[in-house]
What does this fold into?
Amino acid sequence: MRIGIDLGGTKIEAIALDESGAILSRRRVPTPTGDYVATLNAIRDLVLLIEDELGQSGTVGVGTPGAISTRTGLIKNSNSTVLNGRPLDQDISRTLGRPVRLQNDANCFALSEAVDGAAAGVRIVFGIILGTGVGGGLVVDKRTITGRNKIAGEWGHNPLPWPRDNERPGPDCYCGKSGCIETFLSGAGLRRDYHARSGKNLNADEIELVATAGDRHAQECLDIYQDRLARSLAAAINIVDPDAIVLGGGLSNITQLYSALPALVTNYAFSDGIDTPIVRALHGDSSGVRGAAWLWPIRSSD
It folds into this structure.
């Protein structure tokens, strides 16, 4: 049995999978706000509750915002700031009394979709999350590729490729730079663009809805969003050339993306044609917690 933990800013979710990927149990609790020790205890309690329910123990994988620094062994870059500067993997392992595996939540998302999701059956998968932030994970042969500095897949903090004059220098990013892909392609970026044109505050779902109803400003924003996403994906394809790209996060629900993106990407990528499938995540919001469960080695027969 494999147990996955998705450690989010507002909730901690746990799932138990059998070797085929079938869900045996699933539970969630609110994340203790600003309380590191209580967070560790909540993870422990979820694992023990599931194991007691099912009458068996399992491996434990954890998906978390941020990553473990190769220099310090402590969490870095987490928007759940109570985790930063903490030896989270060691502390969870100590609290549970067993080894755990911990990875960035975007890596878990990509792994889930590569193992038994929208990109099952291909070798190289680039999974991206378009939501509050813009994250990414790279998986090869059902194994996450984290890189020497544990930042592989962090495409959201590269500059927007081929920027137009009106896109320079770009919005300020929390990372300390400006013009990052994340500042344009996050939910906040789309809302900001629509507000600048219409004076209205709508979220991504609402913007797509009013665009479908004929709102000119909304459709202009979506057209620009798609072009920026295409430029950003083309740059990633030029470097990695994955067999599939899987979109997750709230903005992956914008249905226009999947018909328009392939042709737009071809305009920018360094090739005479691009046939990379760009698909929506099969497991949706469950991908992160499922990917955490799959962090332990997969049998060669899988």
Observations:
- The radius of gyration is 20 Å.
- The domain at 2-108 is CATH 3.30.420.40 (Nucleotidyltransferase; domain 5).
- The chain has nine helices and twelve strands.
